[in-house]
Amino acid sequence: NAGVTQTPKFRVLKTGQSMTLLCAQDMNHEYMYWYRQDPGMGLRLIHYSVGEGTTAKGEVPDGYNVSRLKKQNFLLGLESAAPSQTSVYFCASTDREYEQYFGPGTRLTVT
Amino acid sequence: AQRVTQPEKLLSVFKGAPVELKCNYSYSGSPELFWYVQYSRQRLQLLLRHISRESIKGFTADLNKGETSFHLKKPFAQEEDSAMYYCALRENAGNMLTFGGGTRLMVKP
Questions:
Q1: Where are the alpha helices (DSSP H) in chain A?
Q2: By the 8 A CB rule, do A2 and A91 touch?
Q3: Chain B contacts of A105, Cβ < 8 Å?
Q4: Which of A71, A89, B58, B71 sees the fewest Cβ atoms within 10 Å?
Q5: pLDDT-flagged residues of chain B (< 50)
Q6: B14 vs chain A: nearest CA distance in angstroms?
């Protein structure tokens, strides 16, 4: 099993550009999450999903959109990137057990 | 509202010294507390949780409800313990985690 994978690993965007980050998991997990990691602020939840076709806002949802059309995939979109969105983005998934399984991260720089 | 605080951003110790990474939380219900670790160039992974009351890689953590703390301890630090450590809280009925700001542990030879 690959676990949780993220595409791409790195990306540089210019202000105003758009992009989509893809998260995929092969563990048949119901729950999926998108976090951003910033120095000193830990991981903050952007959006999450409790099942296929459902999404919900987390702590810092502004400027991001998500979709969960397939159970194994959770997409994070930036419609108009801003420098404040420079961060490392992590996807995670879990079933009803306690452990969240994380992807390797996507390092995004917005200039 | 729930909140997790890790007061130290950086903790530097020598190999063989004891280590304590502090974590304090505020939550009105019955929390579940976790420690996650991120080694260099690796993904975040679960280290331990308070319910299991187990020792992983020599680390232990005890939930102190009176002091609302969940400090991570190890009696003798090793160089391979150098990593970023995150304390996290989960509401009893949910599947969302609230993370602290993280503490970078550096174990010097």
A1: none
A2: no
A3: 43
A4: B58
A5: none
A6: 23
